[in-house]
Amino acid sequence: MLPAERRRLILKQIETEGSAQINQLAERFGVSAMTIRRDLDVLEAERRIVRTRGGAMLREDPRREFPHRWKDERNQPAKEAIARRAVALIGSGQSVILDAGSTNLRLARQTASLQDIMLITNDLKIALELGDIEGLHVVLTGGQLKPKVYSLEGHHGVAMLSGFNVDTAFIGCDAFDLERGAMTNSMTKISMKQAMMKSAKRRVLLADSSKFEQRALLSFADLTDFHTIITDDGIPPESAEACQKAGIEVIIASKEESET
Q: What angle do CA 71, 168, 198 make, to 5 degrees?
């Protein structure tokens, strides 16, 4: 195999899984660890990856939508804490929309103890985890499956969502601030997120503090379009206060609670 082809396959694996280890790559391609290190050096020089101890990970890029696995491994304590606070907003007998994403997947797991909940989602992983749980009625939107992200998108899903009138929609984002609102790196997700928000009486943004005052490719809503923002205690107090002054309820989840 030519080095360029091997590097292409290495990059493809890292894009799919979010990271890779040198020893595992060496075994897969039947080459030495030193050869893999040289391949990773080239990919890092091209700003495709970031070298880590014993391997490499995908380079952060505000214009790229990252695979689910990569997102799921980041900021886990914050996401768990946010999910715990979010589930308190759901009561028995209610209907909710869960946007696709790693924080909403954690919220979905928290709903397993609730009863008589209608749950609509465009996230294949959420539907698979909750589909057999008694007391939860899971509806999966239509649309085209996005590989590595496991979300359903497109006009079929938007059309389906437009017929619903639910109590609460829990929406995710890639970045948020008061100036640009809630942002995403995916053009195809915008119409789905906006349809979810339009179908809900109450709109809740779930976003850990690492996304605050960052930039993503496209804005899909003003922060004032949300009734509530649930984030973690890493957000600057003055920023939370600014959101509250704009009329948005801000719920701060403590990361320490998720670790106890």
A: 90
How does 180-201 read in b/e, with b if 16+ C-beta sit within 10 Å? bbbbbbbeebbbbbbbbbebbe
The CATH class given to the 69-258 domain equals alpha beta
pLDDT digits (tens, 9 = 90+) for 114-159: 989 999 999 999 999 998 998 899 999 989 888 778 899 999 999 9
- Is this structure's pTM higher than 0.90? no
Structure tokens at 117: 């909940």
| Domain boundaries for CATH 1.10.10.10 within the chain | 3-59
Output the pLDDT for position 60.
Answer: 64
Separation of alpha carbons 220 and 214, rounded Å:
15
Tokens of 138: 């899971």
Q: Which CATH architecture has domain 3-59?
A: Orthogonal Bundle (1.10)
Q: Radius of gyration (Cα) for the chain, nearest Å?
A: 20
